[in-house]
């Protein structure tokens, strides 16, 4: 395979060593469909969790061995199944399994949106962040949950957006979060570049009892996000737009840092 492909936007050559992972597991349909699409851009190495790892955030394995196994579909090698987290997969994929350092890390396609403050829980987004730790442009891709999800068309949308994004972005590595609502499959609208919503939503527990009379709780999410005075990923997704959000993992509050510059703190009180 050639080392470059022609971008759909302006013919700019793109590097094409791609590491693909997810948090739904190596047998997830979203991963398989996205792999097929990304292969149009170049060489794809799949390194994904052996089992579903949804909601694990940025956890990593360091107190036990990381077991990895090659997975085949008929005579074709699908990739590596890792008995660890999505972040583990990216770390070991870059350092051990990719033929060379990837030019792009893609995490997904997740079965369920990763938007708003919920990105902090997401294994899908965490895998993309891990790629960004290595100084590699990384994209988390998520599709709205549907029992009969249209993964094929969603994967095509994701690939098109990623190709255009790579052609238009600056040279410096960047981290992105891409979400595709179900409505966008049947009624494609322009992609909205929007910030994350910082409004808390969906917090609820359902209390039940087991056969022995002991209480237990199921986490649930059934509330609408609060309104804001500006458009966010949540509000745009509700309108049926595909959303793209640039992210960063530097959690330092710069404004408060400036306010604290003249503080004179003393451990002696």
Give an overview of the whole structure.
By secondary structure, the chain is of the alpha/beta class. The chain is 25% helix and 26% strand. The chain has helices at residues 29-38, 86-97, 123-133, 151-168, 183-186, 233-238, 254-259, and strands at residues 4-6, 13-15, 17-21, 43-49, 68-73, 76-82, 104-111, 138-143, 175-180, 192-193, 204-209, 215-220, 243-247. Strand 7, helix 3 (123-133) and strand 8 form a beta-alpha-beta unit. It is globular.
- Class by alpha and beta content: alpha/beta
**Mind summarizing the main beta sheet?**
9 strands, mixed
Would you count the extended β strands for me? 13
Strand residues, percent: 25-35%
The radius of gyration is: 20 Å
Q: Strand sequence of the main sheet, in spatial order?
A: 5-6-4-3-7-8-9-13-10
Order of helices and strands: EEEHEEEHEHEHEHEEEHEH
Shape designation: globular
Number of helices: 7
The whole-number mean of residue pLDDT values reads 91
Helix content: 10-25%
Low-confidence runs of at least 5 consecutive residues? 1-10
Q: Gap between N and C termini, in Å?
A: 66 Å
Outline of the structure:
The chain is built from 7 helices and 13 strands. It is α/β, with parallel strands linked by helices and 269 residues long.
């Amino acid at each position: 395979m050639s080392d470059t492909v022609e971008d759909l936007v302006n013919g700019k050559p793109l590097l094409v060593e791609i590491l693909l992972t997810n948090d739904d597991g190596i047998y997830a349909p979203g991963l398989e469909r996205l792999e097929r699409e990304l292969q149009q851009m170049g060489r794809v190495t799949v390194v994904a969790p052996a089992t579903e790892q949804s909601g694990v955030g940025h956890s990593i394995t360091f107190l036990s061995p990381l077991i990895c196994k090659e997975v085949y579909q008929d005579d074709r090698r699908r990739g590596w199944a890792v008995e660890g987290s999505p972040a583990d997969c990216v770390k070991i994929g870059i350092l051990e399994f990719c033929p060379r350092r990837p030019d792009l890390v893609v995490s997904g396609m997740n079965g369920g949106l990763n938007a708003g403050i919920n990105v902090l829980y997401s294994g899908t987004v965490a895998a993309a962040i891990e790629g960004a730790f290595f100084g590699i442009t990384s994209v988390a891709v998520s599709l709205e949950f549907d029992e009969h999800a249209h993964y094929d068309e969603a994967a095509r949308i994701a690939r098109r957006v990623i190709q255009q994004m790579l052609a238009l972005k600056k040279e410096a590595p960047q981290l992105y979060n891409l979400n595709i609502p179900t409505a966008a499959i049947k009624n494609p609208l322009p992609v909205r570049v929007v910030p994350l919503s910082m409004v808390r939503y969906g917090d609820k527990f359902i209390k039940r009892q087991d056969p022995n009379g002991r209480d237990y709780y199921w986490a649930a999410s059934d509330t609408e996000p609060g309104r804001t005075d500006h458009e966010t990923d949540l509000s745009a997704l509700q309108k049926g737009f595909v959303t793209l959000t640039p992210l960063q993992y530097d959690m330092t509050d710069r404004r408060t840092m400036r306010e604290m510059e003249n503080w004179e703190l003393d451990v002696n009180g």
